[in-house]
Amino acid sequence: MFARGTPMLWVPSGYFAMALTYMMLTSVTSIMFKNLGMDNGQAAQYASYLILAYTIKPLFAPLVEMYRTKKFFVLCAQLIVGAGFAAVALAMSLPDYMVIMVFLFGVLSLVGATQDIASDGVYVTALDSKTQSLFCGIQSLSWNIGPIVASGGMVYLSGWLHTHYFHHQAGVFGPEWIDSWRIIFFIVAAITIVTALWHARVMPEGARAENAPKSIGDAAFILKDSFVTFFQKRDVWLMVGFAFVFRLSIGLLEKIGPFFMVDPVSQGGLGLSNEMLGLIYGTYGLIAVLLGSLLGGIFVARRGLQQTLFILCCAVNIPNVTFLLMSIYQPGSLIVICAGVAVEKFFFGFGSVGFMIYLMQQLAPGKYSTTHYAFGTGLMGLCMMVTGVVSGHLQQALGYVHYFWLVMAATIPSFLVTWFAPFHHKD
Question: Choosing a second label site near 207 at 20 to 30 A (CA), which of 173, 268, 367, 411?
């Protein structure tokens, strides 16, 4: 039906593989750490450190341009990721498995970031601009299937295996969870390796970029020049502040929200199982994000970014109040809980569109537009890492109700940087 090299054969699978790796490392690991008995502070901290490699990937992206083909890096990265997740599963049988597991996750985050660079490189160099535009929606949809499988399917399956297959008690955290999570990592390893074998058959090689560095010296010069020109932009520090702070409250909420769902009612949580957490976050929550993103894009397209950016900031931040209300009243109704998560996720998706478009239209334009856009997303990733590292410790010190009050207070800097965000280019 499709000829070899046809984008439909490798674009969906390529971006799904990227998202599956990223979500397993930076999101699902926090739930696994929590299940295995870590406190909220450690679980959020260790999982957040794994964002670092994805944040700094613009620094080593030129090296991927210099050697072999982009397809070569994609295949190597996916095979290593698959073998790495299998190694994690095997390591869980060892006495000091936690130390080995955290080390392996760190290595896998570097490899996963390399997979992202190479996969994007194949997409950009193997397809002409018209085809890139045509497959943009498929690319985005395929990436968003990753969180459904990881944060939804794998978390749900871990809970089902824990209670129904291994017959352990659902609400008790500790080493008993090793049995189910070992199977999860073997499944992810198999999916990733099969994907690599598929890409070996159908993915094009990917051409070298016209401005690809020919040596380490060239790569260093390009990186230095991109930094210099970045900080020469007009009002750059206001734009840096916007890129870093816009999602501040989301960074504080991202890891703690799921912990709040699974923690016992006696500890201020909602006492949900992994199965319900996977269903709520990976299905209803993600559908709400996708719908919000779609409507947010239409909203910006019709009214323009400068006229709507502050409204979009309100959409991202104000609905976080649903978690504050749930922590105060601790509802037992699944309908109320699902509605609370869906409202927050819908408006997050709606408002986040403005953040990405601002980076594209105001921060990125210039000599190194792609690199400068990556700097902007890197600043956002740095914010998510820093807030994630401290979020669990703050929650333990404050309790859930006071912590979610802190999340609402953290929306104030977002409002300020959005109000003063400069516009020097037309929408």
Answer: 367
Which position has the token pair 């058959």?
201
CB atoms within 10 A of CB 76: 16
Residues in the chain, total: 427
Q: With beta carbons less than 8 A apart as the criterion, state whether 57 and 116 touch.
A: yes
Displacement of CA 425 from its chain's centroid (Å): 28
Residue (of 27, 8, 21, 22) closest to 137 by Cα position: 8
Q: What is the DSSP letter of 209?
A: P
What gap in Å lies between CA 10 and CA 131, rounded to an integer? 13
Task: Report the candidate in 159, 154, 151 with the shortest Cα–Cα distance to residue 185.
Answer: 154
CA separation for the pair 359, 120 (Å, rounded) = 18
**Domains assigned to the chain:** 1-212 (1.20.1250.20), 225-422 (1.20.1250.20)
Are 177 and 35 in contact, with CB atoms under 8 Å apart? yes
Amino acid at 332: G
Closest CA to 268 of 405, 408, 402: 402
The confidence score (pLDDT) of residue 377 equals 82
Dihedrals phi, psi of 390, to nearest 5 degrees: -90, -15
Q: How far apart are CA 142 and CA 12, in angstroms?
A: 5
Determine which of 117-126, 346-355, 398-407 has the lowest per-residue pLDDT on average.
Answer: 117-126
CA angle 389–50–28, rounded 5-degree value? 90
Give yes or no for a contact between 122 and 14, defined as CB atoms under 8 angstroms apart.
yes
Candidates 336, 337, 320, 342; CA nearest to 406 is: 320
Q: What angle do CA 27, 386, 86 make, to 5 degrees?
A: 30
- What sign for the dihedral angle of Cα 373, 376, 381, 384? negative
Percent of the chain clearing pLDDT 90 (strictly above): 56
The whole-angstrom separation of Cα 3 and Cα 204 is: 11
Q: What's this model's pTM, rounded to 2 decimal places?
A: 0.87
Please write down the HEC assignment for all residues of 269-302: CCCCCHHHHHHHHHHHHHHHHHHHHHHHHHHHHH
What are the backbone angles phi and psi of residue 27, rounded to the nearest 5°? -120, -55
* Distance from chain centroid for Cα 212: 27
Contacts of 93 (CB under 8 A, 6+ apart): 178, 182
Measured between its terminal Cα atoms, the distance across the chain in Å is 40
Residue scoring higher pLDDT (379 or 217) = 379
Q: Measured on CA atoms in the order 143, 145, 149, 152, is the torsion positive or negative?
A: positive
